[in-house]
Amino acid sequence: MGLAPLMFDRLAAAKEYEAMAGHNLMDCIECGSCAYICPANRPLAEAIKTGKAKLRAKKK
Length: 60
Description:
With 60 residues, the chain is an all-alpha fold. The chain has 4 helices and no strands.
């Protein structure tokens, strides 16, 4: 799928939501497996949901 959950987390922290879209953010189905297997226990799924919400709000 070409998804990079850690990159999504970093870009969300920097509020770079447009860049998240460039990394195929909208292809994520938000299954949560990235957060489940993350050895650093980072809230990856939360960052993805936030990024998607910000992108959707921006398009309106």
